[in-house]
Amino acid sequence: MLRDRQEASTPISHSIYYVLTLAISVYRARDEVDNAEWLEQLEDAADRLELCTEARSRARDIFLTTVSEERSKQTTLAASLYVGALVESDQRSQTAVANAVGVSRLTVQKYWKEHLKAAGLDPPGW
């Protein structure tokens, strides 16, 4: 009974964080090596956006989880940065992220929800 009360009193944000952490930590260590140049670009863009450490870390995890040969890595980088910042409450506009990465705002707009799903969250229905 006490355990049920403790679980019931756990803030939703902690539960979301736990699920999110589990959902996006599925990449190989080799992915970091193979994408080192892109991860540097992610850090450079995060510097330009002045993102917090948590947003950078989340964006990095999302990038490494969703990067593929089928889609532009620059597109993946932009969407990952936008979602990382959004999830960690360090939100930046789609335009600001697009400018920091060197893609169009429409690129961020088109792909961010897909990356949010990859992070284990449902995109808003609006």
Verbal overview:
- The structure is a single chain.
- The model is unreliable at 1-24 (pLDDT under 50).
- It is globular, with a radius of gyration of 15 Å.
- Helix 6 (73-87) packs across helix 8 (105-118) and helix 7 (94-101) packs across helix 8 (105-118).
- The longest helix has 15 residues, at 73-87.
- 73% of the residues lie in helices and 0% in strands.
- It is built from 8 helices and no strands.
- The protein has 126 residues and is an all-alpha fold.
- The termini are far apart.
- The protein has a single domain (2-118), classed as Cyclin-like (Cyclin A, domain 1).
Helix/strand layout:
Blueprint: H1 2-9, H2 12-24, H3 29-34, H4 36-49, H5 53-66, H6 73-87, H7 94-101, H8 105-118
Helix pairs in contact: 4-5, 4-6, 4-7, 5-6, 6-7, 6-8, 7-8
Shape summary: globular
Low-pLDDT sequence parts: 1-24
Which superfamily, in CATH terms, is the homologous superfamily? Answer: Cyclin-like
Q: Label the structural class.
A: mainly alpha
Order of helices and strands: HHHHHHHH
The portion of residues forming beta strands comes to under 5%
Number of domains: 1
Topology-level CATH name: Cyclin A, domain 1
| CATH class label | Mainly Alpha
Summarize the structure.
The chain is mainly alpha-helical and 126 residues long. It has a single domain, classed as Orthogonal Bundle (Cyclin A, domain 1).
